[in-house]
């Protein structure tokens, strides 16, 4: 097999890579705190009761506790990508949306529009750490649900263990994308976009009351896009539509139905030809890892399609029996089908995969008081089930569709029972939660006996914070995690569940008199049997390792009345492999920088001759890091920084008759800096400059 075929074999194997007292209690009525910022009140925006932000500044989020606990009082780090940030930066994927979040590593696989891929604090959560509206997104090796940022209200990033509340999730936490929901104010917007790579797109977002009484609300969000990319044969086409409807027959009952359908097409491969060279380990074993990428693309643009159709429908139901007792149930059914084609001028490969999943979470919420202590208690049951079938075939005789074998199948069932108590006494906040999960998994390869897993695990979380009158809140937290993994590992066996623990200490500061918020924290975590990818015999394969990570993060956000908004962050992440192979123990996890920072600033001019003009610019810096777990300098990634920018104009400031009309131009990687980036021993290139222009009408 020549080098190109060897490299393409790595690409094929990389498909699943890319892309856990004496006094009796008495019940009293307690007041719930619900903070609504500007973003939650503005027509066409806001998920009231789910999340509330004021410009760039987060106020409340259900992600950390499933209750409306203020972010400033939560004893864990919660980073938020608000609606204001999404509108200013205009990300085109979940990966891009997380580009300014501290501790999140994006772009490790260069430019690849097929999957959203990232790490948090050194932990890869691509497959198991992404949630949608509080319910996990089940994934399969080649089937990852795509996220459309235009359908987001906001994104909450919960740092630290979440397994005691959400079940299967990483020790580092979860990413929870919050969908747009119906609002009580009638609104609408239509937008046309164009830009780099012959991009053409139209967006729409409509909603409001559906009846005069306001007991039925609706919203429908969608877009249609045709676009090329910087790589030949790699389009970025998409059809997305997300209807939602809310029924509110009275103040005590609410049912929201959320739907979505997406049909997308991109390239089956985005790989470059890599230079391979022999490399001898300490024990004498010779392997053939990647040592660098050429600018020559490896794939054949004439046979390079990746189409994916996905859909989901579900509901969120809540009913208050009284001022102190309520029941909540969230449910989602989702399905996904992929068809991926890749090859060279002499070779063709194809992967077809189908995934079906159901997730449901039901919990009872009670507000209690025992003496001087008030309690918010949740008791719940979480059930999830996913099954997929994957078929992969190769044709070395011609560039045509290869025959596909019978599918390899996996079925996972997760059941979890949990309890959480948020206690409040004066300035003190104590959070305790515990959960037990039961996993049942069956993995079947055609012609072989099924491999089964039946495991259970207990996870817990404890956090303590002290809320001062002057805005300062120190906190500490500790928790454990349990996380089943899809697919197999290097030796062909079923991947073991990943287990971990994390400790964190920090301080939050809500600046008195200003709409500004600062979060600084130190953390330590370790994971056992974490999923990583490594090159073995020129093929990128999934394996498992033990490692630990420790570091420091600080994030500051503000949105002021004079039109100035700012987000700035820094992250220090120090990872160490404790078990993988003798040649890697003590090394750093590949593609995780020790140092990273970002800053984004915006200014909307409200007075003077330039009123209506908006400016924004940002810098994303990623420090030097190693391109493989052997930490070889030959494929070490150099430090790099990218510049983004935006320019907007509100035409109403020019003429009141033009109310609702605005224009915006965004540029990513404004300086057109193209660098090589290596991850898991294989190297890629990032995308160059991308410019997006839009004209929007809101009413």
Automatic annotation (TrEMBL):
Q: Which residues form the signal peptide?
A: 1-22
Known InterPro entries for this protein?
Beta-barrel_TonB (IPR000531), Beta-barrel_TonB_sf (IPR036942), Plug_dom (IPR012910), Plug_dom_sf (IPR037066), TonB-dep_rcpt-like (IPR039426), TonB_sidphr_rcpt (IPR010105)
Compartments (UniProt record):
Cell outer membrane
Q: What is its main location?
A: membrane
Return the SUPFAM superfamilies for the record: Porins
List the membrane topology term(s): Multi-pass membrane protein
Keywords attached to this entry: Cell outer membrane, Ion transport, Iron, Iron transport, Membrane, Receptor, Signal, TonB box, Transmembrane, Transmembrane beta strand, Transport
One Pfam assignment: Plug
Domain (TonB-dependent receptor-like beta-barrel) ranges: 263-670
Q: Which ranges carry the TonB-dependent receptor plug domain? A: 71-173
Tell me the protein family, please.
Belongs to the TonB-dependent receptor family.
Name of the featured protein = TonB-dependent siderophore receptor
Please give the organism: Bosea massiliensis
